[in-house]
Specification:
232 residues; alpha/beta; Metallo-beta-lactamase, Chain A; 7-stranded mixed β-sheet; 7 helices
């Protein structure tokens, strides 16, 4: 499997015949430094953790131009369908969907999920973390935007993720210290990748605090170069 980070919480997973974008926030993302056409080339699926604009991002445009299937919560699927989305597979927390060669499972995240229309929040379902499993590949757990919660231990026991994508930016998610604590307390990741930092001035500027807090732990900390695919 190859993982590419595009800044903030946007990732691409390439494995087998599949190319999966998670939370593809490109337009308006101050941390996005890649070529969008290259980033979306060959994309087969888009998986969304929740409805905030810095996670839904370019979903509608990408889905229209690539024909990718969007996988996310029922509420968010219906909202996007009302805006013209054609191919989608709705689900919710606790559910698993088979995407033909891999599965997506949605699990709890402690956050919120909405869009703002004329100054009014529009509810877009529960925020989630997503677990992606494919035969012969390491199980990936993108935590979405979340605080620490003790049921992370149950998620770890049930799904045994090997790659963790963990928010560290503070203010809207865990900070670096809490994210490191959650990683060490609940998971047996082979590799952990920090995200949700280095994009907006009001969240953490870099991953240094997380790297420092993880020192001495067996889990490998990967701080990827933006736009560069890394094998895991």
């Amino acid at each position: 499997m190859q993982i590419t980070w595009y800044g903030h919480s946007a990732f691409r997973l390439d494995f087998g015949k599949h190319a999966v974008l998670i939370d593809p926030f490109f337009t308006g993302n101050p941390a996005f430094e890649s070529d969008k056409a290259e980033a979306i080339k060959g994309v087969t699926h888009i998986v969304l953790t929740h409805g905030h604009s810095d996670h839904v991002g370019d979903t509608l445009d990408i889905a229209a131009s690539t024909g990718a299937t969007v996988v996310t919560t029922f509420d968010l699927c219906m909202w996007l369908a009302g805006k013209g989305l054609k191919k989608f597979d709705p689900m919710n927390m606790g559910g698993t969907t088979d995407q033909g060669g891999f599965t997506v499972t949605m699990v709890r995240a402690d956050h919120s999920s909405s869009d703002i229309v004329d100054g009014t929040p529009i509810y877009l379902g529960n925020p989630c973390g997503v677990i992606i499993k494919a035969k012969g590949e390491p199980t990936v757990y993108h935590l979405g935007d979340t605080d620490i919660f003790s049921d992370m231990g149950l998620i770890a026991e049930l799904h045994e993720p090997k790659i963790g994508i963990v928010p560290i930016g503070d203010r809207f998610t865990m900070d670096a210290k809490t994210a490191a604590f959650a990683t060490k307390r609940f998971f047996k990741f082979d590799t952990v990748i920090p995200c949700h930092y280095g994009s907006f001035p009001i969240i953490a500027k870099n991953a240094d605090g997380f790297v420092e807090a993880m020192k001495g732990h067996a889990t490998k900390v990967l701080v990827p170069q933006k736009g560069k695919a890394t094998s895991v």
